[in-house]
Amino acid sequence: MKFMKIGTKPDTFYTEEATRTVISDIPSDLTIRINNVCFLLHKLQIPLVPKCGLLQRLCSDADDSDIVTIDLHDVPGGEDAFELCAKFCYGITINLGAHNFVPAFCAAKFLRMTESIEKGNFVLKLEAFFNSCILEGWKDSIVALQTTIKLPEWSENLGIIRRCIDSIVEKILTPTSKVSWSYTYTRPGYIKKQHQSVPKDWWTEDVSDLDIDLFRCIITAVRSTYIPPPQLIGEALHVYACRWLPDTTKSRPLHSSGSQTEESREKSRRILEAIVSMIPSDRGSVSIGFLLKLLSIANYLGASPVTKTELIRKAGLQFEEATLNDMLFPSQLPTDQHFYDIDLVAAVLESYLVLWRRQSPLPTENSHMVRSIRKIGKLIDSYLQVVARDVNMPISKLVSLAEALPDVAREDHDGLYKAINIYLKEHPDVSKADKKRMCRMLDCQKLSPEVRAHAVKNERLPLRTVVQVLFFDQESGSRSTTHKPESITRARQAPIEAEAKEECDKKVQHEGTKSSSRVTETSEREIQKRMEAKMVRGDSEKGKERKGETNSTAKMMEPKQVFQRRSSR
Q: Where is this region: Disordered (predicted)?
């Protein structure tokens, strides 16, 4: 940062309540009122009026002996900027830098402290400092540009904003090999002394200090001057978002109705919507993790539906690149009892599926779209296993997300089974109907032998599900032994299952006076017993046909023992 010192006299200004005056033997004959502050100054004895064209005009009708009072409430920069101009006229030492240049320059222009009034006046010195120091410096240009937000109209009319932006953009476009000025770069793991080359995104952190409107001007100017890599613009947006937007990844933010908090939320909404509008259309310009983070922030801030829809669309395009950690956001709705924002994931998944179905109406087994949807299927099942541990997670949301995937998305149902098992373990009070609702999603044919072995012994599962697992487990074992087509086994087992169910239904009708819960329990036990018996008889007949295969009946009796243990309980 560079500074300019003007004047040689010590500071003789002092403030008493709302009055600022100069220690002098000469009585004050000029009162300047700015807002609630009065300046007691001198007209001619000290070269104040001779240096200010505006004051000359306002004092032209007054005699030299008159005490003149002037109101200058509209001076840009207020009383502090006017004091800098007054001290310059008195020859008092002042220090100028990028932080106070803009108000001083605007006030000097307002007071008409130009060369036409007096040679070597304040405006000339300020312009020289602006051109030779501020615009030549990287951080000086950014600081000066940021101070223009307090005087936007004056800064725009005097060309300060445009010239600062031009200077900043010129430095951003400078080849990294020629960057010699100081800059801020605090990425984790980056140490300047260990890196000889300047990173391509060296400018992003310093520019993130700007107001969002000025930041947008910088990004727009960079993109219009030349075509930068989309990832570079995306990185600048990411840095700015981390600098100004709330972090919703760790815990649920506290919602407050205070006016100050609401004002802050409104400012954050404006920043968020501006960032979303600046995201390049190129796929991969920002990461899927960043898009999901912005969507979570949008839910927290109550952003417009247009902003949310755009984020969901962009996230859907890149959903295949997501990881499990990218999706773990707490819910931002105060009415939600559950912790994880499962609705966010469901919305992005729906957007992805719309695009997937449009691009691949009839996917082949080895196509890219099948590989893509199966990658998403594994990701969703992993996510379900995490959110299933949430004790307040409604079963309806879990089932809805699991059922949203098409059948082709899951090569196997092992991951889905694990999610169901975790949910039943963490929610021991779940109703029998809800258990059946969850397990209805399982395709027992897509369970691995290890998972089927676990399911047979899993007392959390409904009895009907265990029966189905046993059927397919024995069917698989039968195929491996006899090498017969699958259709033959199913054709043989289907009548057995139907006959057992029919006999059980008759028994249920006969015992119609019993309670509905007990009827249901009896039905399931009858089904299992009938099916066991039929299966044993069927395998015994098959064993007679196949000579030497006496062990098959013994194998088929093993599930019966499992059923007997569950029935005894």
A: 475-569
Q: Which one-letter amino acid corresponds to residue 440?
A: R
Using an 8 Å Cβ cutoff, are 311 and 364 in contact? no
Query: What's the DSSP call for residue 253?
Result: P
What is each CA distance from 31 to 61, 74, 167, in whole angstroms?
A: 15, 16, 40
Give the domain-ending residue among 104, 132, 160: 132
* CATH number assigned to the domain comprising residue 19: 3.30.710.10
Q: What six digits make up the tokens of 473?
A: 């487990």
Q: Could you list the residue range(s) of the whole structural domain that residue 370 is in?
A: 358-476
- Per residue in 135-180, pLDDT (tens digit) is 999 999 999 999 999 999 999 999 999 999 999 999 999 999 999 9
Burial 210-224, CB ≥16 within 10 A → b, else e:
bebebbbbbbebbee
Does any domain span residue 420?
yes
For residue 518, which amino acid is it? R
Per-residue pLDDT band for 252 (boundaries 50, 70, 90) equals low
Q: Provide the pLDDT for residue 130.
A: 97
| Spatial distance between the Cα atoms of 426 and 419, rounded to a whole number of angstroms | 11
State the CB neighbour count (10 A cutoff) for residue 548.
Answer: 6
Number of separate helices (H) and strands (E) present in the chain: 23, 7
In a domain, 115, yes or no: yes
- The verdict on residue 113 lying in a domain is yes
The helix (H) or strand (E) run that includes residue 192 is none
Three-class SS state of 219: helix
